[in-house]
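Order emerges. As here.
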Amino acid sequence: MKGSVTKRCPCPVQRNARGERIACKIKHGSWTYVADAGRDPATGRRRQLRGSGYATKGEAEAALAEHVDSVRKGTATHDERQTVAAYLRGWLEQREANGLRPTTLQSYRQHVEQLFVPQIGHLRLRDLRPGHVEAMFREIAKPQPGRRPRGPASIARIHATLRSALGAAVKRRLISFNHAVGIDLPKAQRPRVQPWQPAELGRFLDFAAADPLGALFETMAGTGLRRGEAAGLRWVDVDLEAGVAIVHQQVVAIDDGKPCPHCGGRHREASFGRPKTRSGEDRVVDLDSGVIGVLMAHRLTQDAQRAAWGEAYLDHGLVFAREDGTPWPPVRLTKRFNELVRAAGLPKVSLHALRHGQASLMLAAGVPMAVVSKRLGHSTISLTSDTYSHLLEGVGRDAAERAAALVPRALRDHSVTTPAPETTQAPRQSDGGPGIAGVDGAASGNRTPDNLITSEVLCRLS
C-alpha cells in the first residue's frame, strides 16, 4: 500500500531543482498523510484515505504506518466520506427494508431527525468521538420550553437507538469503535405499575358494559392483550368453543402510507402490523368464561350493525371494529377509556393498566411468573419480573408456608413453661442442696442447677 506525508501551511509552495516540493521550515501549519486505499468495489473508482492535524512529520508518518498496518491486518475502516446524518438516514432505510416494525421505525426516525441530526449530523462519521455523544446527551437532557424534561427511561431509549446505529457502522467497517458505548447516562429505573384494585376494576367494567367499547375493555382486562392487539384481533383467530384466541396482528397508531391489506384503502391513524415482540406473535391466549360470554354478545351486536350498513359495510374481519367495519384508531380507544374513567369517578390510570391488572390478578392467584410472561407476550421473563415483582409481597409469604407444609414433621411443643403457682407452704428441701423444681427435695422457684444461666426465660426452657 502506497502513501505519503505533506505539510500544509499558508506559505508559498517551494520546489527544489528536480521540481519536488520542499516542506516549509517554519514551525507552523500541520502535517497530513494520504494513503492509497485501492479501488471501491462498488464503483471501481480509486480511493484515498487522509489524516490531518499532526504537529510534526514524525507524527504523520507514524499515523500512516499505523493505517498501513491496519490494512494489512484487515482491520482498516473507511467511512466513505459520509456525514453522521447521511449514514443515519441510510441506516434507517436499511432497517425499514429489513422489515423493522412500523412503530419502532417511527421512534427511530424521530430520534434521528429531531435529536441526532441537529446535534451531530454535520460531523464526518470517522470524526465522531465520545465527547460529541456525551455533549449531545447533556443537551437532550436539558428542560425545553413548553415540554416536560426527558426522564432517564426516555434518554435510555434514545441512547439505545444511537448505539444500535453505530454498532451497525462498526460491523460494516465504516468506523473502528462504537462511540455510544460506555458513556455516562442518568440511571433509568422501571417505574412501578399501580393497577386498580379488583373492586375498582369491577366497578369500571360494570360502568362501561353498555358502552360500544365496553366489550373491548373487558377483553383487555381479562386477557392482558395490548391496546393494538385487541384492536387487531380477528374473528378467524378466536375459537369461542375452545376458549382461546391467537394473536397474529395489531393495529398501530401511524399512517405508514401503505394500502390496507383488507380493503385496499388507507385508514387515518391506523395501520396493521405484527405484534410488538417476536415472543408475542402467534401466541395463544386462554379465555375465561366471562370473556367468552362478552364476546358472544358482542358478536350479535356486530352482526346487527353489518346488516344495517349493508353493502357499505367494510368488513375487515375484526372482533372490535367501528360501526362501518373499519379499524379503531388506537388513540380513539385511549381517549374513550379516559372519558369513562372520569365519568365513573375512579382513580386515573392508563389504558395499559388493564393489562397490568390482568398480570397482578394472575400473580395474586399464584400463577407462576413464567406462565404470566408467556400469556402477556413479554420478550423475556426478566421483563415480567422487573415490572411486577413488587406485587408479590404477600404471595411470597404464602408460597413459603405452602412449601413448608409439604415437609412431614413430628409434633413439637413450642410453648414456654409457666412458673408454678405460689403456695402458702414452702416446698420441702433436702440436705443435698439445690435441686429441680417440682421434684421432692428440689429448690423452689425457677432457677436451674447451672448457675451460669441467669436469664429467667432460659432457665424455664432449660
The beta strands are 3-8, 14-15, 21-22, 30-39, 46-54, 238-239, 244-247, 250-252, 271-273, 283-286. The two ends are 91 Å apart (CA to CA). The chain has a mean pLDDT of 81.
